[in-house]
Design a protein that fits this description.
291 residues; alpha+beta; Jelly Rolls; seven-stranded antiparallel sheet; three-stranded antiparallel sheet; 8 helices; 16% strand
């Protein structure tokens, strides 16, 4: 069970915008949440003809077994290992996401959450999406979430160039160049951590089983007041990632410098001492006549 993120995982999150961590949530916590989902579906069943995505949005206080996937497991601590201890607020709402087969849908593009805006006009931005897989999704097209790696950085660049208000104009679909998408795979109890700005979408489900997942939209304390800055600076809410990137940059610089021979570059390294008497400098050879 993963309890602490490694430096390599922090660097992967910084580059790709998401992590899938296996076996984070204990089996008994997953089992209790699965029973709560069963009861939720029994009380409010989807229509008989419903296919594809179907969602429930209970309050966390009304579904303690669902909230425990995040707060009763190492999941919340792992999320804070990217932002800093004590920086994240426990979300008040939970999303139970079903993907009912047969659903041959294949998304043509990405989106980012938060549109339409909140009643006060602010886009519904947040810091991080956390998701716990509640059914096995080892293969492709089993209701998997699709993600476009690295688009958290591309989106931030887009908002720096066009301004944060371009979010509303784009309607959640900023016109950026997209890489090849990936389908998130894993097993029940695995944890997804994704940057808010990572482009994503729901995929199809051609398997015989309903895909289940539980998502949490997590904010850093004070996020709402600086959402404009966050859209242009992807690491504003992520102290730990920002510090890891700074250390990585320094280590890369140090490795580059260490490959240089001491004394070869002016001002680099201490002066090299010689043992024994100094030798006189060699006499310069006479210049050859010009031809």
């Amino acid at each position: 069970m993963v309890r602490v993120l490694s430096r390599e995982q922090a660097e992967e999150f910084a580059e790709r915008g998401f992590l899938v961590l296996p076996g984070v949530v204990p089996r008994q916590v997953v089992a209790a949440a699965a029973r709560a989902i069963d009861e939720l579906i029994e009380r409010e069943p989807p229509g008989t003809g419903v296919r594809g995505p179907y969602n429930y949005f209970p309050e966390a206080a009304q579904g303690p077994e669902l909230a425990a996937l995040l707060t009763g497991s190492p999941a919340f601590g792992l999320a804070e290992s990217l932002t800093g201890a004590g920086t994240l607020e426990v979300p008040w709402q939970v999303q139970v996401a079903l993907n009912i087969p047969p659903n041959p849908h294949r998304p043509g593009m990405h989106h980012i959450d938060g549109f339409p805006p909140e009643p006060d006009g602010r886009p519904g931005t947040f810091t991080m999406l956390a998701g716990v897989l509640m059914s096995d999704q080892r293969g492709r097209d089993t209701g998997n979430l699709w993600v476009w790696p690295g688009t958290h950085l591309t989106h931030a660049k887009y908002f720096r160039e066009h301004g944060p208000d371009a979010f509303v104009a784009a309607g959640g679909y900023p016109p950026i160049q997209l890489p090849e998408p990936e389908q998130v795979t894993g097993e029940a109890g695995d944890l997804l951590l994704a940057h808010y700005l990572l482009g994503h979408n729901i995929g199809g489900n051609t398997s015989p089983a309903v895909r289940r997942a539980v998502y949490y939209r997590i904010k850093r304390a004070g996020h709402d007041a600086r959402w404009r800055e966050f859209l242009t600076d992807p690491w504003l809410d992520y102290d730990a990632v920002r510090h890891a990137l700074a250390r990585w940059s320094l280590s890369q610089r140090g490795r580059a410098l260490s490959r240089r021979r001491p004394g070869r570059w002016p001002g680099w390294g201490p002066p090299q001492r010689r043992s024994g008497p100094r030798r006189p400098p060699p006499r310069a050879a006479p210049l050859a006549p010009r031809r």
